[in-house]
Fold this sequence. Notes:
Elements (H helix, E strand, L loop, with lengths): L7 H4 L1 E2 L3 H5 L1 H21 L1 H23 L1 E6 L1 H4 L5 E5 L5 H8 L5 E6 L8 H7 L3 E3 L4 H18 L2 E4 L17 H9 L3 E7 L1 H4 L10 E7 L13 H12 L14
Parallel strand pairs: 2-8, 3-6, 3-7, 4-5, 4-6
Antiparallel strand pairs: 1-8, 7-8
Helix pairs in contact: 3-4, 3-7, 4-6, 8-9
Amino acid sequence: MSNHGDNPDRSTSSTSGWRGVLFFVPIVIWTFAGAAVIASLAMLSERFRTQGYTSWVKVWGRVPLALCGTRIEVHGAEYRDLAEPKLLLFNHVSLLDLFVMSALCPPRALVLYKQEFSRIPGLGLAFKALGMIPIDRTNHEAAIASIAEAGRRIRAEQATCVMAPEGTRSRRGGLQSFKLGAFHLAAKHSIPIIPMIMRGIESSLPMGSFIIRNGRVRVDYLPPIDTTEWQTETVRQHARDVRRIFLRYLSPEAGTEEDS
């Protein structure tokens, strides 16, 4: 396995966006229609909803990337594939995250997604039909209830729970400060954390753009972080410690501390 600390400038690259322009309309159609098909299958088949959706979700994510010439280079997949309940935390960069995360969808994935996604045609229905958990960031009590449901289901379903600890995409570039929900979840239920570091997405689809550029996205899954000794009283410090791990590979967002 390659060294996780490889210089990101040497491990990721991007060039032109002519393929993104050429295939823009087909990708838009694929995005919404494909999601609607997955949602329909999930509503029609319990087996599909609980076991059979992974390969479909992977194809849904891979097709737009292939059309635009965006390649994914994966390191440390053995950590993602550990046969135990776990919390997969990723840095949230741009809309391209959705395709990359789908292309690498682990078995028994349980996604916590922001409530706003529910309003997107096709995608919102697919998230709901697959039993993913929305988080209403405007309602603290509802958000806590969503975290509690996730904790129950991770253990019951031996699931890999996928969350973005930043809460939303960085508007200014760089790694934002982490919200505490994921870390309360890990501490309360002693769920190991797998950091997922994505680099190159900001070049393949910069913030504010809808045209995907061909290039390479590097994804590093890091060794599990043991949370069995974590306490809810020290969750804020644990969040800082995990963010420091991410900052070994990523730059902080302007205006945030490197060790906050």
